[in-house]
Amino acid sequence: MNTLTLGAARISYELRLYFRAGDSVFFTFLFPIVMLSIFAVAFSTSGNIGAAPDGSGGISFAAFYVPGMVAAGMLLSGVQNLGVDIAGEKGDGTLKRLGGTPLPVFSYFMGKIGMVLVSSVLQVALLLLVARFAFNVTLPGEPGKWLTFGWVFLFGVITSCVLGIALSALPRTGKSATAVVIPIVLLLQFISGVYLNFAQLPGWLQNVASIFPLKWMAQGMRSVFLPESFEAIEPGGAWDLGLVALFMGLWLVVGLMLCRLTFRWIRKDG
Amino acid sequence: MYASLLVLPTVVAVPVAKPWAHSFSISTLRVRVLTPTLWFGLALGQDECQFSDLVLVPDGIAPALPECKHEAMTTGVPAVQVQQLKKSYGSAMAVDDISFEIHDGETFALLGPNGAGKSTTIEILEGYRDRSGGNVTVLGVDPQRGGLDWKAQLGIVLQSSGESGNVTVLEQLTHFAGYYPNPRKVSDVIEAVGLAEKAKMRISRLSGGQRRRVDVALGIIGRPRLLFLDEPTTGFDPAARRQFWGLINGLKTEGTTILLTTHYLDEAATLADRAGVIVGGKLVDIGTIDEIGGAAARVPLVRWQRDGVEHAQRTSEPAALAARLYAQAGGEVAGLEITRPSLEDIYLDLVGNPAGTVAAAETP
């Protein structure tokens, strides 16, 4: 009966709840897979991206959208899922009940983050399977690429979780949570190279997006899934994995501080 | 174009700055930063008592819990001590100078109309709300500083909530039992609240009264020393309420201290040893169930009809009055009734409700 054991118990409890709630499974778990499928089908008759003038080489739209959708999944699982989920639990009395029990706050967070880690690993596995077998996307073969994938993914998901927990303090009621959280993540997805080709955005918008973590998650994932020839069209002319780690780390620290300062079981009235 | 550049940073400025603004106060710092125990847990003290799970007695109603008395019952320190408690929201006083004590093993009912300050008081004792003034100790601890080991000794049944409930009764209780150092046996608790047949059903599919029983079960699963029951039987059918009374009597036998709020005065009369009545944030009366309202409020009421007109009179000699009426009428008296004011009548008098029958009756 310690904090970690309780955290582990919370993880299995949270996972059970997560997969029983149909709307969250659809809107956060399957969303990137649905979006990838839509983009892949919509652009299936277009030529390859990055093809030579004679039409050879390059990659399909499906392959081009894989890194963005992986990054979107990381953001949605953490920020959108937890931001809405925790604000909802605050609104419906779940947190008030937990606050009256000897459950440590850390165990509660561990449950949430563990739930997101497990579900997002399943999500990205499913996404890559769909990309590989439904849309014939070639996945990287080098172990080094998968190592990069591993740390960017893990780091990114945990950062997203912490930001989601911090963001859950913002909505005044559980019902307003989606209205507060979804515009933020939607905007970030449009400016961070998830739906739109980041290299084609205006320079100032690229700079704005670079403040936020999603841009760096997407860039890290591009370095894994896109061929070397795409490195040159990055704004910095390189994948810049050091900056990817730095920015995600900064947001992780900011998120942790916000969680520590803002999280409470109930909204106290003074 | 540059105008939109200004808009974008506000997207991050809102989530970053606003929670900071409304919570970065001195008290927040004290609570959040200087109480890491709430975040990372403490070694929880093991209760000596390992046996005595809820056992249903043969009539299937009253669970007996006789084997195990809680420790630290003999210190003489009241389980709950409230001195000059005040709570204001802006200029409105929700709780205005309330003092009372609840002794170890006692069942105390807090009565009063909606909005009188009952829930505010109880939530201050539970540690959910900070008080504006006065002193409070609960199991010897200031609720504003209570850690996880303190919470492990409490059972809290809040007013009903709207949780999604995508877990079964059994899953929920098993999970919550894991939070406590010495929980009751899950199957016994489910049996005791009368949900044995619904144990594998999701909480979301239960009726309102059944969900309320889950709340009660979650409140007692941790074998609390002190149990808070905030309107616990709302939505119960009469049979479920009787069963609940049996359960509470079992907990009392075990030595559990109970603080109860209810709108059912028969429930308070049956369960509570003492009661306090709160009206408009002030404690207007406190005493044992037999004393509350004072002796005058308990004077019996005699009602009768004469020539189709209702009469009522309060008298300490109701039989003599009835005999006089009998003599006057030369036979049976139409509509004759002799009643002693119920706790509900006395309560309605205390809270100044014009529906109080006793208050409306003429006095001799």
If you had to describe this structure to a student in words, what would you say it looks like?
- The complex is a heterodimer of chains A (270) and B (364).
- Chain A has 270 residues and is mostly helical.
- Chain A has one domain (3-41, 60-262).
- Helices cover 70% and strands 0% of the residues of chain A.
- Chain A has eleven helices and no strands.
- Chain A has helices at residues 3-20, 22-29, 31-42, 61-92, 94-99, 105-134, 143-167, 177-191, 203-209, 213-225, 241-262.
- In chain A, helix 3 (31-42) packs parallel to helix 6 (105-134), helix 4 (61-92) packs antiparallel against helix 8 (177-191) and helix 10 runs antiparallel to helix 11 (241-262).
- Chain A is elongated, with a radius of gyration of 19 Å.
- Chain B has 364 residues and is α/β, with parallel strands linked by helices.
- Chain B folds into three domains: 10-40, no CATH class; 55-287, P-loop containing nucleotide triphosphate hydrolases (Rossmann fold, 3-Layer(aba) Sandwich); 295-360, no CATH class.
- Chain B contains 13 helices and 14 strands.
- Chain B has helices at residues 2-23, 26-33, 37-40, 118-126, 148-151, 169-177, 186-192, 208-220, 238-254, 265-271, 318-329, 343-350, 357-360, and strands spanning 55-56, 63-64, 80-89, 92-102, 107-111, 133-138, 154-157, 226-230, 257-261, 274-279, 282-288, 301-306, 309-314, 337-339.
- In chain B, strand 1 (55-56) and strand 2 (63-64) form a beta hairpin.
- The interface between A and B is large, with 48 and 51 residues.
Cα end-to-end separation of chain A:
33 Å
Average of pLDDT of chain B: 79
Question: Would you state the CATH class of the largest domain in chain B?
Answer: Alpha Beta
Shape of chain B: globular
Overall form of chain A = elongated
